[in-house]
Design a protein that fits this description.
The chain is α+β, with helices and mostly antiparallel strands. The protein has five helices and four strands. The protein has a two-stranded antiparallel sheet.
Amino acid sequence: ALRILLGFLVPHGGRAAVLGCDSLRLGPTERDRIGYVGEGHHVYSEMRVRDALAFEAGTRPRFDRAVAEAGLARCGIDRGRHIGLLSRGQRAQVALLLAAAGRPDVLVFD
């Protein structure tokens, strides 16, 4: 259902819409308004936390680095740690912070 909602799969019947747009017609502008956090927390395990923030900030126009930094501080996550060495819970926190710092209008969780 989430893949259909995000426009990655065609529904067998009916239609799905997000932000008032048919899911099969989501463009870059609409996708920039959607945040997604997957079940597996597939974030850049080979990167340090600070590098993941820099990457996201450089690729997502709405990314608010201050929001991400404040969240990391609140969660007590060291910006210098490799993401792959974080606990599963910490990786989930980083994934959520990266998604939320994009200031999405809609946040989708798996």
